[in-house]
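Known limitations

Structure tokens in this collection are predictions and should be treated as such. Users comparing against experimental data should check residue numbering before alignment. To illustrate the layout, the record for Nucleolar GTP-binding protein 2 is reproduced below. The input appears on top and the generated tokens appear beneath it.
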Amino acid sequence: MGTGKKEAARRERQKKTSDGMGNVRVKGENFYRTAKKAKTLNMFKEGKAQRDSSGKITKAAAYQSRDIPQARVEPNRKWFENTRVISQDALQSFRAAMAERASDPYSVLLKTNKLPMSLIRDSQGKNGLKEHQAKIAVEAAPFGDTFGPKSQRKRVKLAVSSLEDLAGETEKMQDTYQDRLEQARYLSGTLVETDQTAPDEGTLTTAREPIFSKGQSKRIWNELYKVIDSSDVVIHVLDARDPLGTRCRSVEKYIREEASHKHLIFVLNKCDLVPTRVAAAWVRTLSREYPTLAFHASITNSFGKGSLIQLLRQFSSLHSERKQISVGFIGYPNTGKSSIINTLRKKKVCQVAPIPGETKVWQYITLMKRIYLIDCPGVVPPNQNDTEQDILLRGVVRVENVEHPEQYIQAVLDKTKAHHIERTYDVRGWTKATEFLELLARKGGRLLKGGEADLDGVAKMVLNDFMRGKIPWFTPAPAPDIKEGGHNQENETDEVITGRAGRLGEMPRKRKRDYNDEDEEEKEAAEEGDEEVVEEEEDEDEDEEKTEDGDDSNGGIAINPEAKP
Ligand SMILES: Nc1nc2c(ncn2[C@@H]2O[C@H](COP(=O)(O)OP(=O)(O)OP(=O)(O)O)[C@@H](O)[C@H]2O)c(=O)[nH]1
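Generated tokens:
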């Protein structure tokens, strides 16, 4: 809207031309020219007709021209919509099903127009083109026309001209493949380890199903690097049941080499699923490399929360010159990164689910005025040495997407103790994984048509139970090096090696609790329970910030002063 003279002129003009009531249009709807008006004006802009001295039109204006403009169809993919593709298998089964129906005299096909009938007619030769082509290619064309010196068919283009060249080409491809493997190993940080166990020259790894490459996509790694770049403290969340399996060594290496000013700490989550001794042994082992904390993520009954907050406060005072510090949570999918953030905030701020890949993008959460938390999607370092079984049992893959889950059940049975399985499912007397599944399916009434056991469905259930902690299992901590560190070696050896907990998957039978002798019932119940729950007394601390700290004194933390933070 102009001011002064121009605006006054506009108002004056519009008073005459507007609705007759003297209402002047104000800025807003319909203030400017309408599309139609603009089009008309543009048409005139393209030029006037040319006239001679007597006023006759010698050349018409563009809008007056009667020439038909040259036009072409707009290249747009919408012309190709409604095109469907059908696989050969699906086509065959459709044909078979249709043939069956057609031959049944008691059934009539209604609404055939909703079925892709042309797919059937094709094979009957209605659409002659394809059949004709096939005939030419297979039956009608003589050998000479196809392959002889007078062949009319185009030669297949080959990049090689002789058998030797072909062999050389294959070797070259093999070398490139080996280089790629090497690079993948380097990325996963297992280059040194694999050197000793490197497969023999010439052996090839088989291709993997794409679902086993979850957490490795470029997108996820970009998210990870965003989180690392924006964090001052990086918390690497490990699953207490398999801390080494859920370690991302390449990320540790990256932080050590490329971002050594950032603090890396380990948080051993899901400690409630392993016996205290095992968690303690792992904390001792891992804290030789980085500060390590034991944690149990739960909004109502957590463990290690006070220690973690205390540690973050220390980091924050270490960087007192900054306005705030950011703490990034990284780790394998499903290790409980989002759950830890929810525990610290004491409310559900991040989406949590018992399936991997729930967190899709990074997320900022304010813990206190000076401490921000960043959630990251789960990452999986690519490692050619990991089998599909390893990847699956670490909880990286969504079980419902796995084909033939029965094949992994033997690994579950090997990792767990038979009596734990018996207690969980109340089945006994199996020798093989398939027998176990069969028993379980029959017990739960999970049968398919014809009374066959639904092995697939039951196997998926067992795998989910294994990952979600319904079946107790854990990886024992490695034996402590007697010469290393300043720990009480006697106790360590005793705890880690000779205890029942030292054996694979074995859980202590008794809880560490004082029983009343009279209270036999409770004692029995405790003996039944196979999990030794790490308990925490929460000392709620009034904080002026957004969180209330559950203080468990020094419960979860074990920091080795020699370890490089
Ligand atoms: N028993 C037990 N379960 C836990 C603990 N922490 C997390 N969980 C469970 O583990 C599952 C995964 O937790 P999330 O917090 O979604 O894991 P995440 O690491 O954020 O997973 P992504 O989104 O895939 O990266 C959920 O079902 C949680 O309830 C814990 O300390 N103990």
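For this record: Confidence is low (pLDDT under 50) at residues 192-204, 482-565. The pocket of guanosine-5'-triphosphate is lined by residues 269-270, 272-273, 296-297, 333-339, 352-354, 356-359, 377-378, 469 (CB under 6 Å). Please report discrepancies through the issue tracker.
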